[in-house]
Each structure stands twice: as structure tokens, then as C-alpha cells.
Amino acid sequence: xxxxxxxxxxxxxxxxxxxxxxxxxxxxxxxxxxxxxxxxxxxxxxxxxxxxxxxxxxxxxxxxxxxxxxxxxxxxxxxxxxxxxxxxxxxxxxxxxxxxxxxxxxxxxxxxxxxxxxxxxxxxxxxxxxxxxxxxxxxxxxxxxxxxxxxxxxxxxxxxxxxxxxxxxxxxxxxxxxxxxxxxxxxxxxxxxxxxxxxxxxxxxxxxxxxxxxxxxxxxxxxxxxxxxxxxxxxxxxxxxxxxxxxxxxxxxxxxxxxxxxxxxxxxxxxxxxxxxxxxxxxxxxxxxxxxxxxxxxxxxxxxxxxxxxxxxxxxxxxxxxxxxxxxxxxxxxxxxxxxxxxxxxxxxxxxxxxxxxxxxxxxxxxxxxxxxxxxxxxxxxxxxxxxxxxxx
Length: 393
Fold this sequence. Notes:
Elements: H1 6-26, H2 32-39, H3 43-69, H4 73-91, H5 97-114, H6 117-126, H7 131-142, H8 145-159, H9 162-184, H10 190-196, H11 206-210, H12 213-242, H13 247-254, H14 257-271, H15 277-297, H16 301-330, H17 335-363, H18 367-387
Helix pairs in contact: 1-5, 1-7, 1-8, 1-9, 3-5, 3-6, 3-17, 4-5, 4-9, 6-7, 6-17, 7-14, 7-16, 8-9, 12-17, 12-18, 14-16, 15-16, 15-18
């Protein structure tokens, strides 16, 4: 049986990304209040489960990348969807905090096996001439995950029960997404076999990449970016409240994140071929500190909308920049391990950001100063990126 075409593979993986991101990354917040009502646990106790999941995600990315480099991408992403389904089923039956944390340890591992990076690396290996197009398509569809997650979870909880809602999500992952991954990634396209044999000596191993200054500069770049962006996400609503904005007024601004993210990806899909990944990276990375500075210093609604658009576009395109630069700088042969090592460090920073900035806030006068500090972190990310150069030889 012939493997699926490029288009069919991308469509199937994009559907998987949409559901996996909606379930694994965005759904947690929809179940915080129902669990609080059921058990009386505090928000820090509940948020600890998500933090654990994010930390496991970061810690497992290298192993996931190594599996892809060894030719086990199909098994990895299929098993990842199965593990995600099992994690949701375990979550639906919890009665204690240790059980919740155990479920989220499983879900963190599933994140490392399914969310973006594995799909990017597999596309890079299977379709080396079109991987940028594939990566952009996946992120374009994945950008609608929050749009799917919150209404779907709210409907399930309202019409049934939070436990049933979790079980339904688990069933979708087990019965639909796992088979979809297995179908999309069967066989090896002939062009991938030919490409793999093309000058592999030019491709860096992880050991060689670790000795390159550019690897560490890119790692610092995306670690700093992830930290600042994650901190902003975690403190978004309190920061609006500190400006005297009501929840409704804040939502009228943040609702533009999604459209800006998707619009940026659409623009790249149409015009990205005429701009290098490096130049795009400088533009995208600069959007974060500029947007944070605007939010910190401005109070007018128009300025806050500019913040939302810049922040959304930057977050929408930074994933594409990271996914494109690793094979461009270090080749395709060991892209899984190299990308996994780099991404794992940035994910650990993402996991630590909400708590670290909460402590930092205790030492600062308020959110304005915190946001300016985060903008400075974003500037440092741009500086590190500007010094990174493609290795010679």
C-alpha cells in the first residue's frame, strides 16, 4: 500500500494537531472550576498538575526526537494519541490530588509525542522539499485549537458532567486521532528515501550541534521568548485588572489574539517563500517586546488592540520560525534530537514562568514594571537571535 501523499499527510496531521492542542494544552482551564467545586482544592494545588505536565513535556522532548530520528515517528505519534486518551480517562476518574498529578504526568508525555514538534520533524524528513509549507499548514489549523477547545468543553460540561466530558475527550483521542496518526504516517515516501541519501555528511549530529555557538544562541533565544510569553499568558487577566479594566473589557482585547495569530500564518503561507527564516525571525521576535512595552505603558483601548495584534502575530509565527531554522542550520538527518534538546529547555522555562514571575511581582511595584522586565527579556531574545549564524561547513 502506497503511503499517503503530501497533501493527505498534512491534512491528517493538521486534524490531529487541532484536536491534540485543544485537548492537551487548552482544555485544562475549563475544568479548574468544576474540580474546585467537587473537591475544594485550591488553584495553586490544581495549577501544580498543569505545571507538572508542562515540565514532563519539556523533559521528554529529546527522547521523542530521538525516536523520530530512529524512524519510529509513526509509532511515536500514534502511541502519543493513545497515551493522551488514557490520560484523559484516568483524569475523569480521579478522587485525589496524587491521581490528578499522575494523570497529568501521562498527559505531559503525550504532549511531547504529539504537539507540533514531532509532526514538524516527521514532515521535514518525509517531505524535505516542502516541509516549510507543511509546517505552516499545521500551525495554521492548530491556531484554531483554542476556538474549538473552550466552547466544546463548556458544552460538554453543561450538558453532561465534567467527568463525562473528560471521558468523551479521551475517547476522541483514542478512537479517532490515534488511528488517524497511524494511517497518515504509514510507509515512507520515495522522495524521503532519496533525500535521506543526499549529502548526509553535511548534517550535524546533536554532539556537533552542541559545539556550535549558533545552537546555544538559538536555544537562549527561544528559552527567553517562551519564558516571557508564558508569563504574559499566565498574568494576562490580572494585568488588565491592574489597569482598571473589567473582565468584559479585557476579553474584548484578548479575543483578537486568535485572529491575529491565524492572520499572520495565512500571510506567511502566501508570502513566506520570499522571506528567509532568519529575517522573519528577527521581525517576529521583535514583536514580543514591542507588544509588551505597549501594554505596560499605554491605557487607551486602541493601543491595547495594537498590543493584541502584535502579540498574536508574534506567537503565531514564532513556532514556524523555530521549526524552519533547525533543519536550515543543522540539516535534516538528526533534526529530532537537535530540535528536541532545544525545545525541551524552552519548555522547562515555559513551565517555570508563571510561578517565577509571581514571585518577582512581590519585589516590584506592580504589573507595569513586571511587563517592562518581560519586554527586556524579549529584547535579550532578539539580541541572541541576531548573533546566531548558520554553521559553516
